[in-house]
Design goal:
Length: about 170
C-alpha cells in the first residue's frame, strides 16, 4: 500500500510539474511572438513556437531559440537584430526569475533553490540532458525523501510539498 501511495504522489507531482512547464512554455511562445511581431520580424509566430518548444530545455534552449530570430532580424537590419537580442534577454529574465519560480512553486511545489541546485549538479554529472531532466528528478526526489524518510523513518507527520491533492490524500492516509 505504501509503494502505491508513493507512486501516486510521484505521478501527481510529475503531472503538475509538466503542467507548470507547459504554462511557462506558452508564456514564452506568446510573448516572444508578440514582441517579434511588434518589431516587424517576419515569421514571428513560427519563431515564438520555436522559443516555446526549446524553452523545455532549461538554460540552453532559450539561447538556441534566440539564434534564428536574431539572424532573421539581422537580414533586415543590424539594429533590429540588437533589439531582438535584447527582447529575448528581457523575456528570458522575466521567465527565469518570475514566471517559472512562481508557476513551479504553485504547480509542483518545487522550491526554486532546489531546482537551481539540481540543474547545476545534473549539468556536471550528466551534461545538457541531465540539466533538462533535473527539474522532474528534483520533484521526484523531494516526494520520495519526504514520504519515505521524513514521514516513515523519522516519524514526522510532515505533509509532502507536492500538489494539494497529495496533501489531502496524505491527511486521509494517517
Amino acid at each position: 500500500d505504501r509503494v502505491a501511495a508513493v507512486l501516486a504522489h510521484l505521478r501527481s507531482t510529475l503531472w503538475w510539474w509538466l503542467v507548470g512547464q507547459a504554462a511557462a512554455m506558452v508564456f514564452i511562445g506568446v510573448v516572444s511572438a508578440v514582441a517579434l511581431w511588434i518589431l516587424g520580424v517576419p515569421m514571428a509566430g513560427t519563431l515564438g513556437l520555436i522559443a516555446a518548444i526549446l524553452n523545455f530545455i532549461p538554460n540552453v534552449g532559450p539561447i538556441v531559440a534566440a539564434i534564428p530570430a536574431i539572424l532573421l532580424a539581422l537580414v533586415i537590419s543590424p539594429m533590429k537584430a540588437v533589439w531582438v537580442a535584447l527582447i529575448y534577454l528581457l523575456i528570458q529574465e522575466v521567465q527565469d526569475h518570475v514566471v517559472t519560480p512562481v508557476v513551479q512553486q504553485e504547480a509542483a511545489r518545487i522550491p526554486a533553490a532546489i531546482l537551481l541546485l539540481a540543474q547545476i549538479l545534473m549539468l556536471f554529472w550528466a551534461g545538457i540532458l541531465g540539466m533538462a531532466l533535473a527539474p522532474p528528478l528534483a520533484a521526484a526526489a523531494i516526494v520520495i525523501t519526504q514520504m519515505l524518510y521524513v514521514n516513515d523513518t523519522l516519524g514526522d507527520p510532515l505533509i509532502p510539498a507536492t500538489t494539494p491533492e497529495c496533501a489531502r490524500d496524505m491527511k486521509s492516509d494517517k
